[in-house]
Structures are given as structure tokens and as C-alpha cells.
TrEMBL record:
<feature type="transmembrane region" description="Helical">
    <location>
        <begin position="148"/>
        <end position="166"/>
    </location>
</feature>
<protein>
    <submittedName>
        <fullName>Zinc metallopeptidase</fullName>
    </submittedName>
</protein>
<dbReference type="InterPro" id="IPR007395">
    <property type="entry name" value="Zn_peptidase_2"/>
</dbReference>
<feature type="transmembrane region" description="Helical">
    <location>
        <begin position="203"/>
        <end position="222"/>
    </location>
</feature>
<keyword id="KW-0472">Membrane</keyword>
<feature type="transmembrane region" description="Helical">
    <location>
        <begin position="121"/>
        <end position="141"/>
    </location>
</feature>
<keyword id="KW-0812">Transmembrane</keyword>
<dbReference type="Pfam" id="PF04298">
    <property type="entry name" value="Zn_peptidase_2"/>
</dbReference>
<keyword id="KW-1133">Transmembrane helix</keyword>
Length: 231
């Protein structure tokens, strides 16, 4: 029985929370470590991103600076690749890895990479689901209306699908980044190892997010199943 002050299904979330905390610490510490190591060639992250785009024949994407730390992203709506303040002008191995990763997303967009297209298709439902799923679910429980409970579960399943399809998108972008950094001569073979460590650490944050979403969905199913067994 689920008490008002104690819900045993909350214990399911602990592994996801611990992984998320560890991934965040790992990402920040790894970035800080290699943000102090300059690349031998001495190009800034912005210069590397621009040159990678040029070499790939992509001329309609602008590289801009954006505020914040590790706020780097590619906006396909405006065709702008935004690099954070601690990446844009940096020549460090960490900054070049982050910039190349974002260029990887540009390449995915240009070629119509299937997982990226799937993620874009799921985004609207996932955005709604992240806000609406739990209210619908608990209203269904409150009023003992099974269709509303089921609707909450289905909508949150779309959120889980978003996080799951994000994994191949992010790991593929990192794979492209390392190949481009070494193949283009921006980093030596030895320098790509630290850059890979930065991207692998960042990838853990996406794994943690997917695990958290999956465990939340499992929790919804257990709560719904427990409620039906008591009725």
C-alpha cells in the first residue's frame, strides 16, 4: 500500500539520480582538466568549427558565441552553431572536442541522419509529456478513471522514447567529432584521447537521463498496477 508520506516506488529512482550526479561531476571535472591543456596546432574552437564546416561543404551555418558554460549547441531552425564562452576562443583539447561534437550535429542535420529525424519528430510530444504526464496520471488515480491513467503512461513513454533516441544521436556526433579532429589534422593521435575522454564523460549525462526517464516510467507502471490490484 502506498502511504501519503511514503512511496516505496521512489526507491527505483535512486540509481538514476546517483548516476546523474556522478555523470555531472565527471563531465565537469574532465572538462576542467583538459580545458587547461592547449592543442599543439593552436587553433581556437571557433576556428576549428568553421574550418570543419568549410571542409564538409557546409556554407550556410554560422558559428556564434553564446553565454554560459557548456551551453554549446546547434540550432537547426536558424542554422547557427553556438559555442559557449569557455569554448569559443579556447585552444584547449576540451574546447576543440566540444566544438567538433556540435559540428557533428550539423553534419547529421545536413545528411538527414535517421535517429536525429526521429528525435525531432518526438520532441513536441516529449515536451508536452514532460509537463502533462504526471498530472494526467494522478488525476486518473484520484478519480479512478483508467483511461486517464493510461494516457499519462503513454504520454510519458514518449518522453522515454526521446531520451532513448537521443543516445545514438549524441554518441554518433562524438564519433564524427573524433574522426574529424584527427582526420583534419586539428589534433594529433595522442591529443584525441583527452578529447575523447571529454566527450565520453558528457555522453554519460545522456545515459543517466535515459535511465532516469525509464525508471520513472517503470514507477508509473508499478503504481498503476498496485492500484488495480487493490481495487
Amino acid at each position: 500500500m502506498y502511504g501519503f508520506y511514503y512511496d516505496p516506488t521512489m526507491l527505483l529512482l535512486i540509481p538514476g539520480l546517483l548516476l546523474a550526479l556522478w555523470a555531472q561531476i565527471k563531465t565537469q571535472s574532465t572538462f576542467r582538466r583538459y580545458a587547461r591543456v592547449p592543442s599543439q596546432r593552436g587553433m581556437t574552437a571557433a576556428q576549428v568549427a568553421q574550418d570543419m564546416l568549410r571542409r564538409d561543404g557546409i556554407t550556410d551555418v554560422v558559428v556564434e558565441r553564446t553565454a554560459g558554460s557548456l551551453t554549446d549547441h546547434f540550432d537547426p531552425r536558424s542554422n547557427v552553431l553556438r559555442l559557449s564562452e569557455d569554448v569559443y576562443d579556447s585552444t584547449s583539447l576540451a574546447a576543440l572536442g566540444v566544438a567538433a561534437h556540435e559540428v557533428g550535429h550539423v553534419m547529421q542535420h545536413q545528411e538527414g541522419y535517421l535517429p536525429l529525424r526521429l528525435r525531432s519528430a518526438v520532441v513536441p510530444v516529449a515536451q508536452i509529456g514532460s509537463y502533462a504526464a504526471w498530472p494526467l496520471f494522478f488525476l486518473g488515480l484520484l478519480f479512478s478513471w483508467e483511461p486517464l491513467v493510461l494516457a499519462g503512461i503513454i504520454i510519458f513513454a514518449a518522453v522515454v522514447a526521446f531520451y532513448l533516441v537521443t543516445l545514438p544521436v549524441e554518441f554518433n556526433a562524438s564519433h564524427r567529432a573524433i574522426a574529424a579532429l584527427e582526420g583534419g589534422g586539428y589534433l594529433t593521435y595522442e591529443e584525441t584521447r583527452p578529447a575523447r575522454k571529454v566527450l565520453n564523460a558528457a555522453g554519460l549525462t545522456y545515459v543517466a537521463a535515459a535511465l532516469q526517464a525509464f525508471l520513472q516510467l517503470l514507477r508509473l507502471l508499478l503504481i498503476a498496477g498496485g492500484r488495480r490490484s487493490r481495487d
